[in-house]
């Protein structure tokens, strides 16, 4: 009876994961979907703790360790989530994803120990009694090895991605690094196959663990700039696959389903991100786009002439426009200006101006970064225009207000075959009648290349912190 109840709980949890994931694709239902998935996970965890039985019919008994870990992890996770700034959200996602990979790797380490110790005893007895020794009891070894390799790579890669996103780790590459990485990966796979056929070799197991950690570091180090959202998504899929390996080892259907869903969703998102950038995954991993600056060298002036616009002129231009499109970017998140931006939007609408937001799929530092940013400020979901829809409307837009975005509005992606971002779909803001760009300075964006949009005749630069600039704009508009 208990087993059937446990199965039902796992089924409910699995269905809630699927429903939650489906609802996450709709901004209006995303929060509800997140809560449903969290509820399903809670049911699966509690069912495992109180209803699970091992092969000998024993329940779990180490409740102090279990609930101690849940309590500590819950407190740390809650505090981290509440204190994290919107600009640091990608870093937190990467860090938490790395913890998932570490858990999967630790499961493999623990299960290897559980399998090998009895096997060593059986082997010793077989040698003592001069009898044959069968390895049929080690049939789960391939899953343990896969969980170890994938989880370790995900953990190490996510930690490097976290460090690069917060600026503590710089891009690093050397001639032939990709060949070295491929060679290291081949060695890891060869050792894994060898361990599969000869499992009683703990040193080899831990060598694989160490090399997988090293590979995770070397895998992410050369990748930088605008490719980080793709890397985060890819590492997320790795963690999902590693978690699915753990679910297979424990015959835990909820863990297996959740891991498969995360792995599949992460893979599909990675493919979609690459499509949005008009690049192949191979090009992202080998090209290292954004890892080396191709823009203005330190100390040099940008090539071309740009014009600045005063606050009063910008206020007039926005107030008397029929249609305004706002393009949010990472600079808006850095300045924590989403609430002030929403205030400007409402003020312009009270003056009869149509205001919408143009969202590029890779704007910010992770997929959906701008959507989350604006949702926090209660911007209506129907005002968020996807790239294709926004591009159709720029031709009829009087003013585009670019707030901290750079690479996603760079016309070089369409006009300059020598540019590293050539071919990447962009928000075609250059088709609007007037463009106001708010930036702190003329420095290149995250991809490290100069933006020719800033030097076009219809573009005006409004320098300064996004929050301060928007507050001053609102004050000017109120005086009109």
Structurally, how many domains make up the residues?
A: 3
Radius of gyration, in Å, reads 26 Å
Output the number of helix runs: 17
The helix/strand order is HHHHHHHHHHHEHHEHEHEHEEH
**How many runs of DSSP E, i.e. beta strands?**
6
What is the percent of helical residues?
55-70%
Features:
480 residues; alpha/beta; Rossmann fold; 3 domains; 59% helix; 6% strand; NADH_DH_b; NADP
Describe the structure.
The chain starts with a helix and ends with a helix. Strand 4 (399-403), helix 16 and strand 5 (434-439) form a beta-alpha-beta unit. Mean pLDDT is 85; it is low at 289-302. The protein folds into three domains: 1-83; 89-287, no CATH class; 311-478, TPP-binding domain (Rossmann fold). The chain has 17 helices and six strands. It has a six-stranded parallel sheet with strand order 3-2-1-4-5-6. With 480 residues, it is α/β, with parallel strands linked by helices. Helix 4 (89-129) packs antiparallel against helix 5 (141-165). InterPro entries: DHS-like_NAD/FAD-binding_dom, NADH_DH_b, PNTB-like. Residues 7-475 form the NADP transhydrogenase beta-like domain. It is a multi-pass membrane protein. The chain crosses the membrane at residues 5-24, 36-52, 64-81, 93-110, 143-167, 179-197, 203-223, 230-250, 256-274. Belongs to the PNT beta subunit family.
């Amino acid at each position: 009876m208990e087993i059937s109840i446990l199965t039902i709980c796992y089924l409910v949890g699995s269905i809630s994961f699927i429903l939650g994931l489906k609802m996450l694709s709709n901004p209006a239902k995303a929060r509800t979907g997140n809560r449903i998935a969290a509820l399903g996970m809670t049911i699966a965890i509690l069912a495992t703790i109180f209803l699970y039985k091992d092969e000998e019919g024993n329940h779990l008994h180490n409740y102090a360790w279990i609930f101690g870990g849940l309590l500590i992890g819950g407190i740390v996770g809650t505090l981290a989530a509440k204190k994290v700034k919107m600009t640091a959200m990608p870093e937190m996602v990467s860090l938490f994803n790395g913890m998932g990979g570490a858990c999967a790797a630790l499961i493999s380490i623990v299960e290897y120990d559980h399998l090998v110790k009895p096997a060593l005893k059986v082997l010793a007895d077989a040698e003592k009694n001069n009898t044959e020794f069968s390895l049929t009891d080690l049939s789960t070894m391939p899953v343990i090895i896969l969980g170890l390799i994938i989880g370790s790579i995900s953990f190490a890669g996510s930690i490097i991605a976290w460090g690069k996103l917060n600026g503590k780790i710089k891009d690093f590459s050397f001639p032939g690094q990709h060949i070295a990485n491929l060679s290291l990966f081949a060695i890891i796979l060869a050792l894994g196959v060898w361990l599969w056929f000869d499992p009683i070799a703990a040193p080899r197991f831990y060598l694989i663990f160490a090399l997988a950690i090293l590979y995770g570091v070397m895998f992410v180090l050369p990748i930088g700039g605008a490719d980080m959202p793709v890397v985060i998504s890819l590492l997320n899929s790795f963690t999902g696959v590693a978690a699915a390996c753990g679910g297979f080892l424990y015959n835990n259907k909820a863990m297996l389903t959740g891991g498969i869903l995360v792995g599949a969703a992460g893979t599909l998102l990675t493919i979609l991100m690459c499509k949005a950038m008009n690049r192949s995954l191979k090009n992202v991993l080998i090209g290292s786009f954004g890892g080396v600056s191709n823009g203005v060298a330190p100390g040099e002036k940008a090539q071309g002439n740009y014009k600045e616009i005063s606050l009063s002129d910008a206020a007039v231009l926005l107030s008397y426009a029929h249609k305004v499109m706002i393009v949010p970017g990472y600079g808006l998140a850095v300045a924590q200006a989403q609430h002030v931006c929403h205030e400007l939007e409402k003020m312009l609408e009270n003056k009869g101006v149509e205001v919408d937001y143009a969202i590029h799929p890779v704007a910010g530092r992770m997929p959906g970064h701008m959507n989350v940013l604006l949702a926090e400020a209660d911007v209506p979901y129907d005002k968020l225009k996807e790239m294709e829809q926004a591009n159709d409307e720029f031709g009829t837009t009087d003013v585009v207000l670019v707030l901290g975005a750079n690479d996603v509005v760079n016309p070089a992606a369409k006009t300059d075959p020598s540019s590293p971002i050539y071919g990447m779909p962009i928000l075609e803001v250059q088709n609007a009648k007037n463009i106001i760009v708010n930036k702190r300075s003329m420095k290149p964006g995250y991809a490290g290349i100069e933006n020719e949009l800033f030097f076009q005749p219809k573009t005006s630069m409004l320098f300064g912190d996004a929050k301060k600039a928007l507050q001053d704009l609102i004050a000017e508009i109120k005086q009109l």
